[in-house]
Write a structure and sequence with these properties.
eight-stranded mixed sheet; two-stranded antiparallel sheet; globular; single chain; alpha/beta
Length: 284
Amino acid sequence: MVELDDVPELVEPVVIAAFEGWNDAGEAASGVIQHLEESWGATPLAALDPDDYYDFQVTRPTVELVDGKTRRISWPTTRMSLAKLPGSDRDVVLIHGIEPNMRWRSFCQDIVGIMLELGVETAVLLGALLADAPHTRPVPVTAASSDTGLTSRLQLEPARYEGPTGVLGVLQDAFATAGLETVSLWAAVPHYVAQPPSPKATLALLRWVEDLLDVSVPMGDLPEQARAWERGVNELAEQDTEVAEYVRALEEQKDATELPEASGDAIAREFERYLRRRGGGDPG
């Protein structure tokens, strides 16, 4: 168990977590944590002992140069940092980890124990999966919770997925068992452009984080990176007739299943989000 020293009493803390690996197509989810750590000026809080959870022949440590001179070993692990939500006194714990190779239940219980010690009552878990989604359309984000009260309050879909899961699913179950209100957000990354980064998916997840926590996140260069990413994929698709035809088929399928009123609702939600985040108040 990680010992937490000199940590002040936190104010209504919430945890946001993402893990590299199976749960992180295009590194879209871990990209959110990295962006928030930088934007919110997060400070290191704790790290789990990598010897307990990682097979270093599978997830190898790396050698880094410090100041271009000193060599340092960086071990794969899960790290936690602490920040304040902008515009409030509320604290946020950010977890950025690598999916462990072994002892998942102990791993999750370690994290749950730390969160309970910190007084965390709400968790937002971020993931990204590969899907038959066209890169030219808004990135679909699925939000779900196994907590019926939270599902009703936030108008989320109940969790209905059945099948293989990663450490994110195990952690969500552990959080729920411990009594934490838990929401999972999954972005759909086009499978034909799976290589990282995936800034458009990262941006979509960040906007959901804004809505869930009712905060405004500085996006920096991310919107332009998302546009540049889409332009780059467009150029690659135009060079391959089969890929271009496949993308058009995905677009037609997506457009055919999206009702006009759903598109209108999406536009209205985006407009309300813009006004709320930029200080415009109630659009009504």
